[in-house]
């Protein structure tokens, strides 16, 4: 009986940790139009957080390329692209990484923060002290 109680406590603890995490799939919402754009899967690798575009919602092309991107992402498919890189958790904010906007090809410093019962992700991209904020919705 005691063994079952310990397993239940451990399960609840692990479930609570995951629910307070940014890990999982998020629906991106354009901050200017309110349009749903894509699904991004956020995962952890080597102690840092990354995000890949795993689905495009109503794409204008079947498999668009990032022709405005520079470097390694130049002319690569947007679907499957890693847009969030090297984020680290500090208190309740994920920071110290970058986010790529495939629409304009620019890379910004990034800050991520969970809101509204961990079902809304505040995504903030920075250039110097200027920033833009989007709110992404958790996909169940």
Automatic annotation (TrEMBL):
Pfam families: DUF2147. Residues 24-138 form the DUF2147 domain. This is DUF2147 domain-containing protein. The lineage of its organism: Bacteria, Pseudomonadati, Bacteroidota, Flavobacteriia, Flavobacteriales.
């Amino acid at each position: 009986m005691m063994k079952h109680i310990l397993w239940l406590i451990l399960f609840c603890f692990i479930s609570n940790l995951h629910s307070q995490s940014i890990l999982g799939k998020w629906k991106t919402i354009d901050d200017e139009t309110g349009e749903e754009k894509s699904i991004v899967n956020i995962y952890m690798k080597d102690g840092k957080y990354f995000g890949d575009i795993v689905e495009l919602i109503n794409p204008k092309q079947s498999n668009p390329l990032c022709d405005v991107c520079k470097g390694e992402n130049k002319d690569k498919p947007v679907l499957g692209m890693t847009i969030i890189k090297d984020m680290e958790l500090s208190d309740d904010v994920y920071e110290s990484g970058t986010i790529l906007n495939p629409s304009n090809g620019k890379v910004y410093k990034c800050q991520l923060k969970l809101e509204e019962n961990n079902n809304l992700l505040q995504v903030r991209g920075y250039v110097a002290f200027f920033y833009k904020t989007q709110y992404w919705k958790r996909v169940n």
